[in-house]
Prior knowledge:
By secondary structure, this protein is of the alpha/beta class. The chain has a single domain (3-174), classed as 3-Layer(aba) Sandwich (Rossmann fold), CATH 3.40.50. The protein has helices at residues 35-44, 65-74, 99-108, 122-131, 144-148, 167-174; strands spanning 8-11, 48-54, 79-83, 115-119, 135-139, 162-164. The protein has a six-stranded parallel beta sheet, sandwiched between helices. It binds magnesium ion and zinc ion. Zinc ion is lined by residues 83, 85, 91, 93-94.
Amino acid sequence: MNVEDIQAVFIDRDGTIGGTGHFIHPKNFKPYDFSEDAFQLLRDHGIKTFAFTNQHRISRKEASLQDFQEEFLSYGFDDAFICPHSEHDKCKCRKPNPGMLLEAAKKHNLDLKKCVVIGDVGDTDMLAAHAVGAGRILVLTGWGKSSLNQYRDAWKDVAPDYIASNLLEAVRWLLKID
Ligand SMILES: [Mg+2]
Ligand SMILES: [Zn+2]
């Protein structure tokens, strides 16, 4: 993908922007120390940034949608796509379903083939991206290494375009920065 053609990057939260891959309430969530640089590089290149996250604890009232929206806006993201449902809700937005990507495409007039998903989980982040023909970068933070090892079977038919050590390295690869 040419850098000039990239319209937007969808970034997973837990294990990609910060944290451990597990639920952490927005008031306690700490981005990794390189994450802000990654967001800034994308903005400098005129690429839209969107949060792209499953947060089923919202359905259990352990946090609110607004708590997450405020968190993502504080990072300077253009928008946040958040699935609040549990797997029992059978919604179309919970990754690996591509509902949030389709909603974003409609709302922001995007060609998803010119968008990229960066995340740490193969069988949610990478499968959702694959379903709509978006680019796929797996990061090795969070669940990244286990996605490539014990959980590889769950997404065996899909390959990432690139495996990055972390979010900043993913963005630098995407932008062709040495
Ligand atoms: Mg994650
Ligand atoms: Zn949902």
